[in-house]
Write a structure and sequence with these properties.
Chain B contains 4 helices and no strands. Chain B is mainly α and about 110 residues long. Chain B starts with a helix and ends in a 6-residue tail after the last helix. Chain D is built from 20 helices and 10 strands. The chains are: A alpha/beta (about 160), B mainly alpha (about 110), C alpha/beta (about 160), D alpha+beta (about 450).
């Protein structure tokens, strides 16, 4: 399928869930509503579009804007050699989004990392724990509100 | 007779010194962490070691058996020149019996970890 | 100098000579300096020429702790445990800028220098230090071992 | 610690740590194993021991200053991370890189790729007992690092590939040192093929061990040599060609079972391809116009003094570490487009515009300020697709910089690969995945 009608196909199929689709610096970006995310993901992984690989999953913390967190998914379809970026904005209070550990197996660790770094909870995640930081660490370091050099030593340090 | 006693004396003292020198010259600084097992630096997951599996014992016994066998080769090799054919048959019998033991164990599959 | 003092000083120099040329090191490797440690330990720059070539991967058999690469706060207790489980007499080399002072990672995750966790004998700067700097650091440690008062079991603690 | 494995463990099985400080765990990876004798019943991995706050640090550094941090990500092939970051910024700024700089970049990245595969296979072979292979490969890597060191000044953490080009031109004797490096590496590869390819011990340890199916590999997001070992052809250099890879001919080796032996095999064949690439690029690169020995060279201080009246005509003797970025060779190695252009030192010393634009570039708040928006670009690294996702808000510091670390996805499949196998199979499986702490924990 040509690039254009692939996007039209997606736009027409998921018109309810899509908020907008733009193209920044040559990458195709779809902004999806939080409720319809699971349907869009399952649909994109399915056959007509065949986005079989979840390239990357990360989160950006826009401290100023009211919907503070924004999840960014990068999908890649091997057969069509196309990349796609999906964005979902989450409220700042207690950000929750569906977990895709069922669809892609690497989502398990990626989501644990986003939970560890941003505090975004993932509904339906098999084992949501910290992955990079240690148990006694309070707070989520990659949030803009966390100071850059605030160390929480795990054992008493000799000065 | 004399040089036998002399060699025992010299080598005995030498080996005693080499063994005990650590005990004599090693500094002693008791440290509680040293009693804990070394688990690559991370805290041990369970205290104490549970029951060890059977195949470990089998392999250990087999090793012990063959180690002793090798220990017997050494005096035989020393006295081999004047024993001639008789020495060879004694060694052959000894090795044959233990060789059968190993082949039996191999076929029974104690090395294959089910 | 009474006879006994003469003997003990001879014994100390002998001990110092023995200990400095038979350093078994425990490579506590974590990050990029590990690549430079590989070059320093391998054939081209050969650390074995100075008697420190034998790597022992258990603290029980090592007397030199070579801390190589960034130590993060999550790894700090591991480093402390390994250091305490080493037998006396033991020495520590801080290999690379991250172990000396936290290097370019001045943030919430990295320990700003491993002397905040364990006492360090020799600091090797560089990110990563060239293998020649590593060998130079090792020579300085050997000098230090030779000159420092040796410790042994029956020594009267002055 | 409420670890998952302690909760699920059966009372009579043995729980063991293959902890962070372990020779085969590259120092920063912990596997907790539940053993029944030698058989692994359950495994849990713990990472994060080398988490150094890369992404948080990048949010507080300017675009130009955070280049050295990208060296320390995959520190076995540092120049490929530099390339990934530099090309992401060039995509965002819309900057065109001169032809010669692109060729030098391909040469440097292929050298780094070979040293990455050499180090990975050396460590894997040593952990399986083949210490000779480790010494041979480290010797070969020294020759590769010689070329990199003479060009960039540092053996490993080079920060050589800058946004808009490269830092300095190649030095005079680079052709024959590349030639010696290539033939040394070929000799070592021939030896290692002889040592390991049909070695029964190595075959028993790796053939059929740690095999992964194609669906699982894709579901885990595998890329790079590990994915190609399962037979799926995906290489960013072919899928989305960048630099000169569409003009150079090289093929992509594929495995078939996706087990340790295939990962070893794919990496060995990929090194051959990289050597071919290096030879093609070395033939392509023309001999640079050397500045040549001018009759009279003056010191920078003298040039500044003379520069007050009129622009001095003599050449300025630059300090040795600026060698290769003289003015005459400058346009070939660094782009002249506005937002990333740093004037050559000769202009900075003598002309007013050079001084101002140089000062302006490095002043706080000015420098490189890409337009608002986010961009994702990826290159083919030693372990797979190294992708940079940068969100910029118009200031000179990235608002968010995320690295798509290939070995984060590869290592997340380790638990499934070793469950039910013997304890000794963990070492070759983990070795062939080439886990790099800096890239895994960022």
């Amino acid at each position: 399928m040509e690039k254009e009608n692939l996007i039209d196909e997606i736009r027409q199929r998921f018109s309810a869930e899509l908020e907008s689709d733009t193209e920044t610096f040559g990458d195709q970006v779809l902004v999806v509503r939080r409720e319809g995310l699971r349907a869009v993901m399952a649909g994109l992984k399915g056959l007509p579009f065949d986005y079989a690989v979840l390239l990357d999953l990360t989160c950006v913390d826009f401290l100023e804007s009211e919907s503070r967190f924004e999840m960014v998914y990068h999908l890649y379809s091997l057969s069509r050699n196309r990349r796609l970026r999906l964005k979902v904005s989450l409220p700042g209070a207690n950000p929750v989004v569906d977990s895709f550990a069922g669809l892609w197996k690497n989502a398990d660790w990626l989501e644990r990392e986003v939970f560890d770094m941003f505090g975004v909870a993932f509904a339906g995640h098999p084992d949501l724990r910290r992955i990079l930081m240690y148990e006694g660490f309070e707070g989520h370091p990659l949030r803009k509100s966390y100071p850059w050099r605030k160390e929480q030593p795990r054992i008493p340090l000799r000065d | 007779m004399m040089e036998l006693a002399l060699s025992f004396l010299v080598f005995g003292v030498l080996s005693a010194v080499m063994i005990l020198i650590n005990f004599i010259l090693g500094p002693r600084k008791p440290n509680p962490a040293r009693e804990k097992p070394f688990e690559c630096g991370s805290p041990p997951l369970q205290s104490g070691i549970g029951p060890v599996n059977i195949p470990f014992f089998l392999v250990a016994l087999l090793f012990l058996l063959l180690d002793v066998e090798i220990a017997f080769f050494y005096p035989l090799a020393l006295a081999f020149r004047d024993r001639g054919l008789a020495g060879l048959t004694a060694l052959g019998g000894f090795v044959l019996v233990l060789g059968l033991g190993i082949i039996y164990a191999w076929k029974k599959g104690i090395f294959r970890w089910s | 100098m009474s006879g006994l003092d003469f003997l003990t000083t001879r014994l100390e120099t002998a001990l110092g000579w023995g200990r400095k040329y038979s350093l078994f090191h425990y490579p506590f490797i974590t990050a990029c300096c590990g690549m430079e440690y590989m070059s320093a330990a391998c054939a081209h720059f050969d650390i074995d020429r100075f008697g420190a070539g034998l790597t022992r991967f258990s603290p029980r058999q090592a007397d030199l702790l070579l801390v190589v690469g960034t130590i993060s706060h999550k790894l700090a207790p591991v480093l402390k445990t390994v250091y305490e489980q080493m037998l006396e007499p033991k020495w520590v080399i801080a290999f690379g800028a991250c172990t000396v002072s936290g290097g370019i990672y001045q943030n919430y995750a990295a320990v700003q220098g491993i002397d905040k966790i364990i006492p360090v004998d020799i600091y090797i700067p560089g990110c990563p230090p060239r293998p020649e700097m590593v060998l130079d650091g090792l020579l300085k440690l050997q000098e230090k071992i030779q000159k420092q008062p040796q410790d042994w079991r029956w020594k009267k603690k002055t | 610690m409420g670890l998952r494995i302690q909760k699920e463990a059966r009372p009579e099985s043995m729980l063991i740590n293959m902890g962070p400080s372990h020779p085969a765990m590259h120092g920063t990876f912990r596997i907790m194993l539940e053993l029944d004798g030698e058989k692994i019943l359950n495994a849990e991995t713990e990472i994060g021991y080398l988490h150094r706050g890369f992404e948080k640090t990048c949010e507080n550094k300017t675009y130009f200053n955070l280049l050295p941090y990208t060296d320390r990500l995959n520190y076995v092939s540092p120049q490929i991370n530099n390339l990934g970051y530099a090309m992401t910024m060039e995509k965002m700024l819309g900057v065109r890189v001169p032809e010669r700089a692109q060729m030098i970049r391909v040469l440097m990245c292929e050298l780094s790729r070979i040293s990455d595969h050499l180090t990975c296979l050396a460590a894997m072979a040593m952990e399986n007992g083949a210490f000779t292979v480790f010494l041979y490969m480290m010797k070969a890597r020294e020759f590769l690092w010689n070329v990199i060191e003479f060009t960039t000044g540092s053996r490993m953490t080079t920060s050589y590939i800058r946004i808009g080009g490269v830092r300095a031109d190649l030095y005079e004797g680079w052709r024959d040192s590349v030639k010696t490096a290539v033939c040394e590496t070929r000799a070592v590869l021939k030896d290692v093929h002889g040592l390991l390819d049909r070695n029964p011990i190595f075959l028993n340890r790796t053939r059929g061990v740690g095999a992964i199916s194609r669906e699982d590999a894709l579901s885990y997001g595998w890329t790079g040599p590990c994915l190609r070992s399962t037979g799926i052809l995906y290489d960013v250099r072919k899928a989305h060609p960048y630099l000169l890879y569409d003009r150079l001919d090289f093929d992509i080796p594929l495995g078939d079972h996706g087990d340790n032996y295939d990962r070893y095999k794919v990496r060995m064949l990929e090194m051959e391809q990289s050597l071919r690439l290096i030879e093609q690029v070395a033939a392509l690169i023309p001999d640079a116009a050397l500045p040549g020995k001018a009759d009279e060279e003056i010191e920078p201080a003298e040039a500044i003094r003379r520069g007050r009246m009129s622009k001095p005509s003599e050449r300025i003797r630059l300090s040795p570490n600026l060698e290769g970025s003289e003015k005459v060779r400058y346009p070939k190695i660094l782009t002249v487009d506005a937002p990333v252009f740093v004037p050559p030192k000769e202009d900075t010393y003598t002309t007013m515009e050079g001084l101002i634009s140089h000062f302006l570039f490095f002043m706080d708040g000015y420098g490189i300020r890409p337009p608002k928006g986010d961009v994702y670009f990826s290159v083919e690294g030693g372990n797979g697709e190294v992708g940079f996702y940068i969100v910029s808000d118009g200031t000179d510091r990235p608002y968010r910089l995320h690295l798509r670390a290939p070995c984060f996805h590869i290592v997340s499949a380790l638990e499934q690969l070793i469950r039910g196998r013997l304890l000794a199979d963990v070492i070759p499986t983990f070795g062939s995945m080439n886990m790099i702490g800096g890239e895994l924990d960022r």
